[in-house]
Amino acid sequence: MQGDKNPLEGRGWALVCVDGFPAGWGRWDGAVLKNERLPGWRWV
């Protein structure tokens, strides 16, 4: 999704889904969706 534009407005939490299944949460700041997990907790 790098470089994709998203028409969402506002700020807050968003559920990230893959093929219709929930994969995790992200925080939307109005321009970028940021990962909720700390770097050490993410899978590589």
From TrEMBL:
Pfam annotation, one family: Methyltranf_PUA
Domain rRNA small subunit methyltransferase F RNA-binding PUA-like residue range list: 7-43
InterPro entries in the record: Nol1_Nop2_Fmu_2 (IPR027391)
Superkingdom classification of source: Bacteria
Protein name (Swiss-Prot/TrEMBL): rRNA small subunit methyltransferase F RNA-binding PUA-like domain-containing protein
Gene source species: Cohnella candidum
